[in-house]
Amino acid sequence: MKIMIVTDAWEPQVNGVVRTLKNTTRELTALGHRVELLTPLEFKTIPCPTYPEIRLSLMSKRRVARRIDEYAPDALHIATEGPLGMAARAYAIRHGLPFTTAYHTRFPEYVHARFGIPVTLTYRFLHWFHKRSQAVMAPTPVVQSDLEKHGFTNVVLWTRGVDLDIFQPMESKVLNTARPIFLYVGRVAVEKNVEAFLKLDLPGSKWVAGEGPALAELKSRYTNVNYLGVLSQPELAKVYAAADVFVFPSRTDTFGLVLLEAMACGTPVAAYPVTGPIDVLGTEGPGALNEDLREACLQALKIERADARAWAERFSWRAASEQFASHLKPLGSRGASTKRATA
After folding, report:
1. Main-chain phi, psi angles of 35, to 5 degrees
2. What are the tens digits of pLDDT across the range 270-310?
3. Shortest CA distance to 255 belongs to which of 234, 236, 241, 274?
4. Whole-angstrom distance, CA of residue 72 vs CA of residue 225
5. Which of 20, 133, 155, 339 has the fewest CB atoms within 10 Å, i.e. is most exposed?
6. Is 269:248 a contact under the CB 8 Å cutoff?
7. Chain-centre distance of CA 114, in angstroms?
8. How far apart are CA 153 and CA 134, in angstroms?
9. Domain 2-161+319-333 belongs to what topology?
């Protein structure tokens, strides 16, 4: 199958959406599919206000239409709701083509945390964007149920995986500080609630790997914390393996790939009992979920590293990519999605 994936999230961004699409593309190719990505790298871009790491594409709908026409995909997947996603959606509706979409992040909660925009207003936009989709792919059953409660239809499950060859237990001393070592990996942004981790009174030492708009302020306020910046996946695996506990303070994530990466390296997880950690760990997983994040961190120290690795081995990118492919709608069925509602 010739698949085109349209995404506003791509390099140089380092986040779960980009990693998901890269791993999915790799596995789809291994399964015999041909995959073409339409990303901001093909267009002039401007930095997103307050978040310059995110680049917004400046392009005409005509250029996007030409790219889709030239590739002539068998299936069209729109991964994000940004400028490229909007242009691809308009093209598909104009030509009566079915398409699928994905809900990667809790965008309404992120926008509210960053700009104070009411959650209901953003959900209204997302409902409009996704209502013509033949399948809205959600990463977990909890997110699927939440979207359905907000009036979304055709919501299906597209889970996530982890590269068990890169992320694996190993002897690592790259974090040469007092133990126990508590680690956070991810975007350093207000919606990630990183400060909830940094302000905890914990024994040992704390490390943060990642960049984001809140990094400079947090570095100036929490000078006792060690900061690493953005790392390659092999480097990141060594960091995970060197830590005693992986701390995930976010309350707004839909999944949290970093949870799987940490556990694949044998590092247990401490988090709040919210969507994301609950979906990955359930009630039996090798992590400590507690509304008292400090208590969760201390509880996680008692979890066996072998149990963390064994749990991560349940998740594979191959299975997740096969699930993704099963939801795609061939363009030969064009017209099926466009007669039910107006854009």
Report:
1. -125, 130
2. 999 998 999 899 888 899 999 999 999 999 999 999 999 99
3. 274
4. 51
5. 339
6. yes
7. 18
8. 9
9. Rossmann fold (3.40.50)
